[in-house]
């Protein structure tokens, strides 16, 4: 078989997942609660078919079986997150020895199977006790996160070499403080900006702790969802609108983590609109001196933008969208289930941007994937024929390959996700896995895409 798209040697093939979305054992072995448990208790109707994360895909008990399957389908790396509230049930203080044992087992099992563990410290799951103190609005919580990060480096840093501070730090801002899809369901742009800034400070504290520990061969980065902003047209007003969207949704995190400071234009925009966050002494230096070693890039869809067409209601809460309108491009290709546009070239545009404007920093695709409803209807000869997922990945990989040919510093490709996972308020509505999960029996069955990715990984290309 001839390989047309060959990837660099030691390319990372694998997938990503998160604690809340796969572990289950939500109330076992002394795990503390997180905001997801509280929100579910308060408003179960907010979760698709009323399903909580308490059981998920039961990775807590089935990690051995899952890691075996990962190996079988050619993973050489896997990103998972540590649940802060499992490890430190109150957010600070006492460490849960059962959790230490569990994460040690997972790490050791991965290594035994030649799968490099990539560990995320925070993937949307604020410990409840920390939320009671104000969550990311509170500097006490920022400090607690720094301590938690240090604890993780000390416990697991002898074996885990790739660390990620936060997964998509803009999402808890969007979900929890702007657009009402995460707890605490606050709608307040200014508070959201404070949350974003405090998260940034917490990230830097973790990087600082990491560097001070001098972990051999270790590196630390962050995972950002760098959704490119495309203007509707080259009209100056459309360009300006897309620039603002890019500043707020991408460069707000990208610039401080890679360049050590916020974009001046963003500061200006926030200043003019009385949105600037409180900054404490030493924050600026902390941000300046704690740059990342690499970036994880999550890419699902583009953001299309046009100039504002109607004056916003002066009494409505201010939003990023106060400054631009989203644009539905006629003829766009859609994943109709998730309601997200599919635009494969976006992955190339992101990488070229990182190469040209961010020092060609080392990076990898940390998430890309396609959520589809009712996949059971595609069962053929006992397995789900998800050829649409194979096409989706293939087309993205072609563009990624092109970016590498052109000199982009891309080290790998991780799919979202290994096994159908609990997707926050969408619960199990959209299935993303290489592996099908039977919710009733917890039975795992490889989908067609799993067999396909196995070959891709084996041949280091396709
Ligand atoms: C990313 C997250 O935003 O997208 C994952 O890191 C999430 O946690 C994934 O599951 C897919 O999005 P969703 O909303 O369909 O689950």
From TrEMBL:
UniProt keyword Nucleotide-binding present: no
Active-site residues, record numbering mapped to chain: 367 (nucleophile)
UniProt GO MF annotations: beta-glucosidase activity
Protein EC: 3.2.1.21
Keyword Hydrolase part of the UniProt annotation: yes
GO biological process, one term: carbohydrate catabolic process
GO cellular component: cytosol
Record SUPFAM superfamilies: (Trans)glycosidases (SSF51445)
UniProt keyword terms in alphabetical order: Glycosidase, Hydrolase
Similarity remark: Belongs to the glycosyl hydrolase 1 family.
PANTHER family membership: 6-PHOSPHO-BETA-GLUCOSIDASE GMUD, GLYCOSYL HYDROLASE
Name recorded for this polypeptide: Beta-glucosidase
Organism: Clostridium carboxidivorans P7
């Amino acid at each position: 078989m001839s390989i047309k798209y060959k990837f660099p040697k030691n390319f990372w093939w694998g997938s990503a997942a998160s604690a809340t979305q796969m572990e289950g054992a939500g109330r076992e072995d002394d795990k503390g609660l997180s905001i997801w448990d509280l929100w579910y208790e308060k408003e179960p109707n907010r979760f698709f078919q009323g399903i909580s994360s308490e059981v998920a895909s039961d990775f807590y008990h089935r990690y051995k079986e899952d890691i075996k399957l990962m190996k079988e389908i050619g993973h050489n790396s896997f990103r998972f997150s540590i649940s802060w509230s499992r490890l430190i049930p109150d957010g600070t203080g006492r460490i849960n020895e059962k959790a230490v044992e569990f994460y040690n087992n997972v790490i050791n099992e991965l290594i035994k199977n030649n799968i490099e563990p990539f560990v995320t410290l925070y993937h949307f799951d604020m410990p409840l006790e920390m939320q009671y103190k104000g969550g990311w609005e509170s500097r006490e919580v920022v400090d607690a996160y720094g301590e938690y990060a240090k604890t993780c480096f000390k416990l697991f840093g002898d074996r885990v070499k790739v660390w990620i501070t936060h997964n998509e730090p803009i999402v808890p801002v969007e979900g929890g403080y702007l657009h009402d899809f995460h707890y605490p369901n606050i709608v307040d742009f200014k508070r959201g900006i404070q949350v974003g800034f405090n998260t940034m400070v917490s990230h830097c504290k973790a990087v600082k702790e990491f560097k001070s520990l001098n972990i051999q061969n270790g590196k630390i980065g962050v995972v950002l969802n760098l959704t490119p902003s495309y203007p509707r047209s080259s009209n100056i007003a459309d360009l300006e609108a897309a620039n603002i969207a890019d500043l707020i949704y991408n460069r707000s995190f990208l610039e401080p983590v890679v360049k050590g400071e916020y974009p001046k234009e963003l500061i200006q925009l926030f200043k003019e609109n009385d949105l600037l966050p409180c900054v404490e002494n030493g924050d600026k230096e902390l941000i300046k001196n704690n740059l990342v070693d690499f970036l994880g890039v999550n890419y699902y869809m583009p953001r299309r933008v046009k100039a504002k067409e109607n004056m916003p209601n002066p009494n409505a809460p201010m939003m990023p969208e106060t400054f631009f309108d989203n644009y539905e491009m006629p003829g766009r290709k859609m994943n109709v289930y998730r309601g997200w546009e599919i635009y494969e070239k976006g992955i190339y545009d992101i990488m070229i941007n990182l190469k040209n404007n961010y020092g060609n920093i080392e990076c990898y695709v940390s998430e890309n994937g396609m959520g589809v409803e009712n996949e059971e209807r595609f069962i053929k000869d006992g397995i789900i024929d998800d050829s649409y997922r194979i096409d989706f990945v293939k087309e993205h990989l072609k563009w990624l390959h092109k970016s590498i040919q052109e000199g982009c510093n891309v080290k790998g490709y991780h799919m979202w996700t290994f096994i159908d996972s609990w997707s926050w308020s969408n619960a199990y509505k959209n299935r993303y896995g290489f592996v099908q999960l039977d919710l009733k029996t917890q039975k795992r069955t490889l989908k067609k895409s799993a067999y396909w990715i196995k070959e891709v990984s084996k041949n280091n290309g396709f």
